[in-house]
Specification:
The structure is a single chain. By secondary structure, the chain is mainly α. It has a domain of 37 residues. Helix content is 49%, strand content 0%. It contains three helices and no strands. The longest helix has 16 residues. The radius of gyration is 19 Å and the shape is elongated.
Length: 68
């Protein structure tokens, strides 16, 4: 038996995360405010700049939980 190594592996079609996220996902899939703070703190400590939309979403989640 021989392997056919001339075939190229399948490459997945690139997909944007925004294409697959659900707008009305169950609450259990939300990050807690503690988790959001942890992500922001770790990025800050490491000097990493988060994408603006991610940073805003993390901050919004913290604000939403503190209000409720």
């Amino acid at each position: 038996m021989t392997l056919n190594l001339s075939e190229k592996p399948r490459v997945a079609n690139p997909t944007l995360l925004s294409d697959i996220l659900e707008e009305d996902a169950d609450e259990r899939y939300n990050l807690s405010s503690k988790a959001c703070r942890g992500i922001l703190n770790r990025a800050n400590k490491r000097g990493k700049k988060l994408p603006k939309v991610l940073e805003e979403a993390l901050k919004a989640q913290i604000d939403d939980e503190e209000i409720n």
